[in-house]
């Protein structure tokens, strides 16, 4: 029988298997003593990671208090570096914002210049068209002037021709009058001839006059056309002048925009240079900070190593002392046992004799009529937690708690059996497991000390240890578990109700 109690497994199965020594302890959180403290190194790693993030996004990493002076200094350096980096990040941010501003203004100015240049191009086109129209108008004017001159000349000619006809007619009329005076006889034929001639003459004159009038009308029309062409040319000249002044205005606007752009380009270049300088500076600071973090990390590691060494030394000292105490206690117990045995033998002898007298058929080897005894003497305890109870435990309470006891109250074997294991450590602290004759087992946890070694045969009622508060507890008490045949003692969720088991064995708790 060399089975080891799978304590580590049992512990990991129910990290919250904490016992309440007193009823009011149910309000006490268990994690105060059973959760291992988070490694400082782990915290430091997290801090370094946060700092690394801070390097890029400008956050401040949380500060950690540290009992070590060196670690404190390292911490301070780290905080300073972080704060510097913070400032630096702010500077960079404002430089970047100035650059973005300049760039946006530059974009605006450039699009404004584009607009003005477009307008100017339109104006230039309009100017060209205007110049063409002006040239056309002037040509038209020249043509109109030439037409006027030609018509005037024609009028002169017609006038002259008409004058000649009139003069000729006049002379001919005079000669006819003279002829009539000479002939003094007016014949019908003569008269007819004369009338015919007169009509012819009149018609010729009329034609000349008509031609003259027509020429004059043409002249008027030509003059009118000339005036119109002049007005048109004038209008074109005016339009061209307006367009020109508009163009001059646009040109000066474009010039202003261009100089604004030059200024903005200069501003942008300044902002860019500032950003670059800032980035350069940040790189240096980041490198500096990384070096400081590294240094801080090393110091903390040194400190932790020192602490671990110290703790190891203390642990060894404690162990040596415990061994010594144990040896002394065992020796004392041995003596006590001898005395007790002697006393019991005497008592048994007396009882035997007494029983022999009263009932000779009764089994003399039993000290009680029941198969089992209460692991704590009746009257010395109160039950603070029963099997199956839920509360602070990971799933449910796997035993029966005898509380109201002081450290050092004797714990008794509930039934005859053999010590299966006598172990220290884990959630159960110092504990003893007994294997009984029919394959059942009982477990006694949280002892201040054990007084039964592995393999030892015990009778019900034998003292196997003393109450204490070792393992996960809030106060001194006995946590008592029962395992039926086939169950693995210590595999807590295979435990059954110990109270029922005791009752079956004649003990009412
Ligand atoms: Zn318990």
UniProtKB/TrEMBL annotation:
Alphabetical keyword list: Hydrolase
InterPro entries assigned: Cell_wall_metabolism_enzyme, Dup_hybrid_motif, M23ase_b-sheet_dom
Signal peptide (UniProt feature, chain positions): none
CDD domains reported in the protein's UniProt record: ATP-synt_Fo_b, M23_peptidase
Annotated spans, Disordered: 1-31, 61-109, 222-261, 287-371
Domain M23ase beta-sheet core: 396-486
Biased composition regions of type Polar residues, renumbered to the chain: 14-27
An example Gene Ontology molecular-function term: metalloendopeptidase activity
Nucleotide-binding as UniProt keyword: no
UniProt feature, compositional bias: Basic and acidic residues: 70-80, 296-365
The keyword Signal appears for this protein: no
PANTHER family membership: MUREIN HYDROLASE ACTIVATOR ENVC, PEPTIDASE-RELATED
Name the record gives this protein: Murein DD-endopeptidase MepM/ murein hydrolase activator NlpD
Natural source organism: Naumannella halotolerans
Source species taxonomy: Bacteria, Bacillati, Actinomycetota, Actinomycetes, Propionibacteriales
């Amino acid at each position: 029988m060399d089975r080891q109690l799978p304590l580590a497994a049992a512990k990991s199965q129910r990290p919250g298997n904490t016992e309440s020594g007193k009823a009011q302890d149910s309000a006490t959180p268990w994690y105060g003593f059973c959760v291992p403290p988070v490694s400082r190194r782990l915290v430091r790693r997290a801090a370094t990671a946060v700092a690394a993030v801070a390097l890029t996004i400008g956050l401040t990493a949380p500060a950690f208090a540290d009992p070590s002076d060196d670690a404190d200094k390292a911490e301070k350096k780290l905080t300073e570096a972080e704060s510097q980096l913070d400032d630096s990040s702010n500077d960079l941010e404002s430089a970047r914002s100035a650059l973005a501003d300049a760039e946006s203004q530059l974009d605006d100015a450039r699009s404004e210049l584009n607009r003005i240049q477009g307008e100017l191009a339109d104006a230039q086109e309009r100017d060209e068209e205007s110049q063409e129209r002006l040239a056309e108008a002037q040509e038209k004017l020249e043509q109109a002037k030439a037409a006027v001159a030609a018509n005037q000349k024609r009028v002169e000619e017609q006038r002259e021709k008409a004058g000649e006809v009139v003069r000729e007619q006049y002379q001919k009329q005079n000669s006819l009058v003279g002829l009539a005076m000479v002939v003094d006889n007016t014949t019908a034929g003569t008269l007819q001839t004369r009338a015919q001639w007169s009509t012819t003459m009149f018609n010729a004159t009329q034609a000349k006059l008509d031609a003259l009038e027509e020429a004059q009308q043409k002249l008027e029309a030509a003059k009118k056309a000339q005036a119109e062409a002049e007005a048109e040319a004038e209008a074109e000249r005016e339009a061209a002048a307006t367009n020109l002044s508009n163009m001059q205005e646009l040109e000066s606007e474009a010039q202003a925009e261009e100089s604004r752009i030059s200024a903005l380009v200069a501003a942008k270049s300044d902002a860019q240079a500032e950003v670059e300088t800032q980035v350069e500076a940040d790189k240096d600071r980041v490198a500096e900070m990384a070096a400081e973090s590294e240094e801080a990390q090393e110091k903390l590691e040194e400190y932790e190593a020192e602490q671990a060494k110290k703790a190891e030394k203390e642990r060894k000292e404690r162990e040596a002392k415990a061994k010594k105490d144990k040896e002394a206690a065992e020796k004392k117990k041995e003596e006590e046992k001898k005395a007790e045995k002697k006393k019991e033998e005497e008592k048994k002898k007396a009882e035997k004799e007494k029983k022999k007298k009263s009932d000779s058929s009764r089994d003399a080897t039993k000290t009680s009529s029941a198969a089992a005894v209460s692991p704590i003497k009746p009257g010395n305890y109160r039950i603070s937690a029963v099997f199956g109870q839920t509360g602070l435990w990971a799933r449910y309470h796997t035993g029966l708690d005898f509380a109201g006891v002081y450290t050092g109250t004797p714990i008794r074997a509930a039934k005859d059996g053999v010590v299966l294991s006598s172990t220290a450590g884990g959630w159960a602290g110092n504990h003893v497991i007994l294997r009984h004759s029919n394959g059942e087992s009982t477990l006694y946890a949280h002892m201040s000390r054990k007084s039964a070694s592995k393999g030892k045969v015990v009778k019900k009622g034998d003292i196997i240890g003393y109450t204490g508060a070792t393992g996960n507890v809030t106060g001194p008490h006995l946590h008592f578990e029962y395992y039926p045949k086939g169950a693995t003692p210590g595999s807590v969720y295979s435990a059954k109700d110990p109270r029922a088991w005791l009752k079956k064995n004649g003990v009412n708790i």
